Amino acid sequence: MERAPASDSSRLASRLARIGAAAWLLAVAGGFGVLWKYKSTPGAGGAVAPGRWPAGSAVARSTDRATMLLFAHPRCICTRASLAELARILARFHDRLDARVLFWTPREAPADWNTGDLWTSAARIPGVTVVRDAGGAEASRFEVATSGGVVLYDARGHLLFKGGITAARGHEGDSFGQERIASLLTTGAADRADAPVFGCALEDEPPARMARAGTSNRGGER
Amino acid sequence: MSVARKALEMTRAATEAIVQRAETRYEAHRQEILRSTDRIFAWLMIGQWIFAIAVALIFSPYGWQGKVKTVHMHVWVALFLGAAIISLPVALAWRRPGELLTRHVIAAGQMLSSALLIHLSGGRIETHFHVFGSLAFLAFYRDWPVLVTGTVVVATEHLIRGIVWPESVYGIPNPEWWRFLEHAFWVVFCVSILIPSCRRGVRDMRVMAERGAELEALSENQWRNSSVVDRAAADTRGDR
Question: Are A24 and B59 inside 8 Å of each other by CB?
């Protein structure tokens, strides 16, 4: 009889510990849910891209192979994954691609705007030309609103692909975009010619047309 | 009662005493290992949390929208989700060390820490090694069901993410059904080696406890015998 209260309190403590463990698992699962949601939400606007290479573009287009442009915010950490994936694509298709990385540079940008490690990383990728996109003029011409957005044109200037090359925000690994680019470069066809773009917005406010296009352009479904 | 029967009963009683003593020694040793491993994990998890915050602050401090910067989601995730992950394991390691629930919660927490670090590093393949290191650390408990809990947690996280958001795991939206097995294979491979190692560790602990109990009983017996001889010698001296 004397041991009963101790046993009851021990049972209660054990039950509380189990309830606490279940609540803890739920809270942590909720936290991961928020993180997954953030990482899997594409940037507004993404990459719209005109069907033909814009006539007013100052970027040189290759006439004997495909040209790929990757638009990047020089301080967007998520774009590090896009650059890593660009390096993987080029390691495989360096003989079929001419690649350029255009770093968005706002008007009246501070002198050190482009001096981060992303510029250095992009410049280190073999076969890549790094370009400063002053005032985001080229991003606007190619209608790319999200860092990490890629456009791919063939040698005649026809759009082959527009979209991102990562599976999630700042997440390295295989993705829709890479798979489709690889298919386009090897077989000339792919199930879709776009993919969602994950990254920071290039402009403070994306142009209205691109924002509208971005909301309907997840490019994930087949 | 015959002398032989008496001797037999005494031997049986002595053997039971040794078995009991061995069980006590084994339990004490096991508790010492469980409690010290709980403490190691409590500090390890606090260290990992600080590391996760440092990774977020160094590699992804800000998110950008044009020229406007805000604190990156990774910083908040490392701070708050990291704190949530370690809260219960550390509290249990502190308040209820050595208990079954504590080590299973620690196993789950350690695997969730791996998942968090993988996310914070942008899915870098190198960070996935944390999963295998963690499984090896969990083997310190020498309690193989803990490894099963760790494996189930990492597999569940992978499975749910593979169903809800397949491209984040496999890079493609409709992976073949066996792709999950391909990912799980190396974890199962690692655990299939660690489980027999844990069981061997427990066997060794039992053998050590039995030998220790035998030695203890032997030395006690010798001490008792020498005491009898000494007392007899003293009595003999006193008679003279």
Answer: no
Contacts of B67 in chain A (CB under 8 A): 106, 109, 204
Interhelix angle B100-120/B3-59, nearest 10 degrees: 20
Parent domain of B28: 12-212
From chain A residues 62-121, the ones with a CB under 8 A of any chain B CB are: 73, 75-78, 80-81, 106, 109
Check residue B55 and give left, alpha or beta (phi > 0: left; psi -120 to 50: alpha): alpha
What tokens were used for A214? Answer: 């971005």
* Interface predicted TM-score of the whole assembly (ipTM), two decimals: 0.79
Q: What is the model's pLDDT at position A222?
A: 39
Does residue A70 have a pLDDT over 80?
A: yes
pLDDT at A7 over 90: no
* Mean pLDDT, residues B23-28: 93
Length of chain B: 240
A172·B80 Cβ contact <8 A: no
- Residue B230 placed within a domain: no
> Which residues lie closer than 8 Å to A34 by C-beta, 6 or more apart?
B77, B81
Average pLDDT over residues B35-55: 97
* Chain A residues 130-169 with CB within 8 Å of chain B: 147, 167-168
User: Quick one: average pLDDT of B116-131?
Assistant: 88
Question: What is the spatial distance between Cα B127 and Cα B57, in angstroms, rounded to a whole number?
Answer: 17
Interface test with A, best of B153, B167, B172, B179 (most A CBs within 10 A): B167
Distance from CA of A136 to the nearest CA of B (A): 10
Residues of A in Cβ contact (< 8 Å) with B156: none
| Contacts with A18 from chain B: Cβ below 8 Å | 101
Q: Are A66 and A185 in contact (CB under 8 A)?
A: yes
Write the DSSP string, B188-204: HHHHHHHHHHHHHHHHH
Would B226 be classed as within a structural domain?
Answer: no
Q: Which two tokens stand for residue B142?
A: 């020498």
Q: Kindly identify which residue of chain A lies nearest to residue B72, measuring between CA atoms.
A: A77
Residues of chain B contacting A147 with CB distance shorter than 8 Å? 64
Q: Is residue B234 part of a domain?
A: no
Please give the residue that has the higher pLDDT: either A152 or A213: A152
Domain count, chain B: 1
pTM: 0.81
Q: With contact defined as beta carbons under 8 Å apart, do B191 and B155 qualify?
A: no
Q: A interface mutation test: which of B58, B67, B87, B160 has the most A CBs within 10 A?
A: B67
pLDDT of the residue at A6: 60
Chain length of chain A: 222
- Report CB contact under 8 Å: A176, B167: yes
**What is the strand order of the sheet A149-153 is part of?**
A128-134, A97-105, A66-72, A149-153, A159-163, A194-195
Whether B223 is covered by a domain: the verdict is: no
